[in-house]
């Protein structure tokens, strides 16, 4: 059966609610909203919740703001600050924290380049702490950062690379930035998800197979992601749903045709999707035309949020200017 | 009514034939095929043909080769040579021809960057002819090349820029390279169209509004294009067609439902497409995930073909190596 | 004889003063300084001054600030504002001014990419004025922008391209951004020169042979440039001077050796420079290791200054954020 | 005292020979030459040789070919093949070898980007061996590749990163590609050095402090490097030498002036170099103007050589075409 592809906990819960009209057992949700951003915190509290959602136990926080896609600088600053605040609350509480920031994805595939581009703007300090043999600083913490590339270009599992780096550089926390997929175009480039569960195998735009999480790396892993594409299959599925809905309105419940529609819903939809997408060779995505500019903006917003959350002495005034 | 968007004369003719089951009056088509490439020459011979097709009178040659998308180097070389041969036949016959090659599109939008990337690989010689005050050469002709950018980043009509350059540098022919849109994903990045009619307003992935043709520039304009995207509307339309077809098989001709399907076909399809795409904000495209690499390959193939066609002394052995 | 290569009027005057110990006739100089920037205005008032300086009549304003090279964001903002103020004073006074901004130089040669990189950040509006058929706006003026590339990659004289664009788009003023050469490393990436005389043949890092000035284009041309390299010949010359000075201190005036030093000064220095640089193939430059980052910063500062100077409604708060 | 900076064993030996007029004890040198390439093999055989040279025991092979800098495609192919042959002879003899290729240096600093750019063209296969659970293949060996970035942008020692990857992915050999510094401009971009001793702390254009060698990584490490810059200090030193030589010709041996020249040679030269370079802030390099294109060419040549040396089924015909 066709599985809507989404990396957003928010959307998994939304799909469940659409079907069952109730909250997922074992899952607690709260929302907070200001004029510009809707913050939704989905807390997957136990194993039951995790199984229903197909997502690991932990906290999934979503920042939704359609304005993210537009060029309003003040709103973007505001979102960097909300991101910083939410992120900070999830970081281990400890003086002189040591953090490793990892950018997943492929530099050369635009919608997948969010991670590497954000990481390139992270304020990296670990080498300075080493050089000056400092243990602590009032303004900065010890931060390192790497974008290891993707398996198709390195031949290496990202997990193997990061595990080695964690073993040798001993950070207290790993922050992973990645591009995600959404089921709804309206969330693409308009949503940031923060989670305490790291990155699961098979998530993201490319193929990353080994998990990057506390279990595999031995330190807490916080993931920050933005959906940058919708699967073409999702667009096709949306279309089919709408066509069926259009017919259903005109068909009488109980009639032969109505049951045909129902039957189709169950059995043939996936076949139709495959038939539509087959000449497309499956390997297509749906993406806004101005994706290059959008990724540039988003990577700055994400980097700003992480820099503010990590370094005690960095605030918005600093991040907007001349940090490479 | 929904208009399938395509820049390929081949597809306009295909649509006509699907509906009318006959050749377009005023249009002559011939095909030639070897193991790897299907060459179709659509000759729009008179005003009637031009009106039906919505394309100007002139020759439209299409090279189709699914292999273009894969990494087979020999096939790519072969296609460069076929392109060179077809192109050469369209160039003005004249010794010491002077050519200007123009790359349309936006460097920073991957599927639209085909033109600028191909033009960056053109073997440019005009300044050398000027420097050494040469009038002719056995191996090279006088070639200049420019990628003027798009209106959104320059504020200028591309046509204004090119017209000025043609007036001051006086080429005998202009070759324009551009990214196109196709109605079928199977043709995306697998088809090259050469035409003698230049670029029409509104063609291409971005917005280019002034025509670049013999009428506006005063010299013959040959366009070389590759479809690099499919409109999301086209994917949606394909889906709707297939759903209706699936239902039609089960509905009896003459029944109320059958006529409902027919009715839908005429009236509501466009509304459905709009409803599906509305949250996508209209401004989306469907594109292969590995588009960045594909554009790199295609730009090399196109540049190779143009370099071989223009310069008498350049052949395949030369173009594959170290020309920046 | 060896000619120190410099594009800075300031340095030409400095060389004259070092030798003659007086001001150049026909040239007026005034200076203004705050804590961070030294503004020098060299006004070449008549033909005599122009001939001695080897520079056209007109105003040459230099902003010098060693801090430009460092990462101090506040200082950079300050310099953008000083640049904007000086630039504004040179613009034609007229409501609804129309401006064309031109980025000279080669995208792919880092120290020469200043112009194209700055121009990519200019706030372009001309197409919007056309689209909405507006004649005037309180916040914006009509701005277009282009980076035409260099002759080595286009085969075209930059002047030919720009002249055509000016003829077709009819701006009231042209602002040209270019990378320059300095005679002193301490000025490299630490100096901005604004002049009312446009760009002369042979200036800049690459080869640009046709002048871009009011005479050739028919509208005022304001040039904004930053020295981003020093010729290797200049470094060699500096070295030779210092060696000679070291010897001179120890040689008695009037002695045979002293006159040998003097003689060398006149006759052999150029030969020595050539001998040192010969294996270097002449085509080398001296440049800071972190040139890529520096060019990025400088292009932002220059673009900020131009955007503030041109558009009545843009100030520092806007330019620092999210303008692509 | 001023130390000429060079990463080439060839130049260290050259300097020794210039001074002592004899071969370095413990060092064996042989040369082989065809029309286009001079291959010099410097074998540092024992501890004495290593100490005199300041280089570790092992083999240093240099390919010198001035043509490398020009655009002759056939010569470049030839050099790829010579590189492949020399490299192959140094690889561990073993069926189904597993290799990790590492690109050192900074993507964003042109002359330092040689390693990352070459590595991006390496034919990577390890993930395919894993995916298809293959142990061996007739045409390919298991190759992985990574460009870890530099300490200034990651905060991590390159050695820490690579050590972790070697521990987790267990290659049999590591091939490291890096940009070097030469003492002579004529060798810049015209020389390839292959060595069996890996990368020593402080080598290369940037700062890499932990060694990458068999001792630190536990597997043989073969380094492939190309000098892409000359230190400005080297250029200055060359100049001073030539000035002194010019004076010396005219000064009588034994005269006071002659001894002054000698004295200067020993004591003041370094001071002069510092005095010349001081305003340059020490952090400058001398580089050809067309460095961007040169690095592109060189990275292709190096990648071609490595691909041919590693994979039994890849030859020149394959590497010249469409490998990303």
Automatic annotation (TrEMBL), chains A, B, C, D:
BP-aspect Gene Ontology terms: proteolysis; spore germination
Keyword Magnesium: no
Post-translational modification: Autoproteolytically processed. The inactive tetrameric zymogen termed p46 autoprocesses to a smaller form termed p41, which is active only during spore germination.
Enzyme superclass (EC): hydrolase
One Pfam family hit: Peptidase_A25
Gene3D superfamilies, alphabetized: HybD-like
Protein EC: 3.4.24.78
Top-level taxon in the UniProt lineage: Bacteria
Reaction catalyzed: Endopeptidase action with P4 Glu or Asp, P1 preferably Glu > Asp, P1' hydrophobic and P2' Ala
Keywords, comma-separated and alphabetical: Hydrolase, Protease, Zymogen
Record's keyword annotation contains Translocase: no
Molecular-function annotations in GO: metalloendopeptidase activity
Propeptide: 1-7
Stored HAMAP family: Germination_prot
NCBIfam families on file: GPR
Subunit text: Homotetramer.
Family, as annotated: Belongs to the peptidase A25 family.
Function: Initiates the rapid degradation of small, acid-soluble proteins during spore germination.
Protein name as annotated: Germination protease
């Amino acid at each position: 059966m066709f599985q809507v592809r989404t990396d957003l906990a928010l959307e998994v819960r939304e799909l469940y609610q659409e079907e069952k009209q109730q909250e997922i057992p074992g899952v607690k949700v709260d929302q907070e909203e200001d004029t510009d951003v809707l913050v939704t915190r989905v807390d997957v509290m136990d194993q039951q919740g995790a199984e229903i959602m197909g997502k690991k136990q932990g906290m999934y926080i979503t920042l939704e703001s359609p304005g993210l896609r537009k060029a309003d600088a003040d709103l973007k600053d505001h979102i960097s600050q909300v991101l910083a605040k939410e992120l900070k609350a999830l970081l281990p509480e400890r003086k002189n924290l040591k953090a490793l920031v990892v950018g997943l994805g492929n530099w050369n595939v635009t919608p997948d380049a969010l991670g590497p581009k954000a990481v390139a703007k992270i304020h990296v300090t670990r080498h300075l702490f080493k050089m000056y043999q400092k243990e602590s600083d009032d303004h900065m913490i010890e931060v390192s950062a790497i974008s290891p590339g993707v398996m198709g270009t390195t031949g290496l599992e990202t997990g193997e690379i990061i595990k080695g780096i964690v073993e040798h550089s001993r950070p207290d926390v790993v922050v992973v930035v990645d591009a995600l997929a959404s089921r709804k175009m309206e969330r693409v480039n308009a949503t940031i998800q923060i989670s305490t569960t790291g990155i699961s195998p098979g998530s993201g735009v490319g193929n990353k197979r080994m998990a990057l999480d506390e279990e595999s790396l031995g330190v807490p892993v916080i993931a920050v992601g933005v959906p940058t594409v919708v699967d073409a299959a999702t667009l096709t599925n949306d279309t089919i749903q709408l066509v069926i809905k259009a017919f259903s309105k005109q068909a009488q419940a109980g009639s032969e045709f109505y049951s045909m529609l129902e039957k189709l819903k169950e059995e043939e939809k996936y076949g139709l999707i495959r038939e539509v997408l087959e000449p497309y060779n499956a390997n297509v995505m749906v993406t806004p035309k101005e994706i290059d500019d959008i990724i540039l903006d988003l990577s700055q917003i994400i980097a700003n949020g992480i820099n503010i959350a990590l370094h005690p002495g960095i605030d918005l005034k600093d991040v907007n200017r001349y940090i490479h």
